[in-house]
Amino acid sequence: MKLNVALVIIVATIFGIELEGFHCKKVQFIFGDSLSDVGNNKYLPRSLAQASLPWYGIDMGNGLPNGRFSNGRTVSDIIGDKIGLPRPPAFLDPSLSADVILENGVNYASGGGGILNETGTYFIQRLSLYRQIELFQGTQELIRTNIGKEKADTFFKEANYVVALGSNDFINNYLMPLYSDSWTYNDETFIEYLTGTLEKQLKVLHSLGAREVTVFGLGPMGCIPLQRVLTTSGNCQEKTNNLALSFNNATSKLIDDLMKQLPNSSYKFGDAYDVVYDVISYPSKYGFENADSPCCSFGRIRPSLTCLPASTLCKDRSKYVFWDEYHPSDSANELIANELIKKFGLGAPSQAPTLAPTLAPSQAPAIAPSPDN
């Protein structure tokens, strides 16, 4: 009997469960695109949105690709670290289990995914937000089977939820003539369609127990290197930036409305547009040297839409706002996260990890074969 009691205490300690009332460990469930993906797409063998080659992940852990579309951490990684929550693993990670979920939560984010199902179809495989929510429902069934409905309901209601999508719905949908949305809608009606869809999705998440939800806004999309290089001037595309601002305004209003409509819920809107635009406009003020081109590039061949082993890396990754044509560097993600931490009143910002030394392309680390190969 004493042995059984000791075993229960050990298990409770491991999983952060208080024996009285069964209060599970607080975790995160993250829904997003490539800015939050921590490895789901590397398990989608036909996906063209991949971060499975060197130099991705060079400044994390062993420096090997880990599924993040950056040289280091995501914004969600940094915010979660700051508020003391574990980093949730990718849903498609084969090692995921009920025990892992109870301890760490889950990340469903997928590179190329959007709020709309039709977004990013030319990536072939990606998880849209509706699909991510379906996978979350499957997660709930698994947890209910393991700990029972009542305890599972408490676990999910006490968790944090992050929803961070939208940029692909513009860059890889509305702004591309090959998509019907580009000629079906104008700017105003497309944003109404997009935020109307997001509203339905957030209400579905509420019905599934999501009570503490943070929705991220969009940054100045027209200033990413991919958008700049497609112009003759090399400047930011103001039309794209204005779409981001309009989306942020509409989503902020949506969050305010949901706070009034949905009982016992806490919704936050994470908007870092202004600070990111200021960083891009005045990089030296923030310690950056380059805010208009990617650290990882294929020489004069641009846009090279992904970072490749044959690409050239900048001399100091901490001085570049952008890692590749689409995505911020670890240093920029830290700045964005710290701005959101300050807005949310969560305390002092976290520190970036020491960067690994810059290697020559010939020194690229070997990577093990993945299921995608």
UniProtKB/TrEMBL annotation:
User: InterPro entries given for it?
Assistant: GDSL (IPR001087), GDSL_Est/Lipase (IPR051058), SGNH_hydro_sf (IPR036514), SGNH_plant_lipase-like (IPR035669)
Please list which residues make up the signal peptide.
Answer: none
Q: What's the domain of life for this entry? A: Eukaryota
Q: Which UniProt keywords apply?
A: Hydrolase, Lipid degradation, Lipid metabolism
The keyword Hydrolase is assigned to this record: yes
Provide the transmembrane region boundaries.
none
List the Pfam families. Answer: Lipase_GDSL
RNA-binding among keywords: no
Q: Name one GO molecular function term.
A: hydrolase activity, acting on ester bonds
Give an example GO biological process: lipid catabolic process
- Record-stated family: Belongs to the 'GDSL' lipolytic enzyme family.
Q: What is this protein called?
A: Putative triacylglycerol lipase
Provenance organism: Lupinus albus (White lupine)
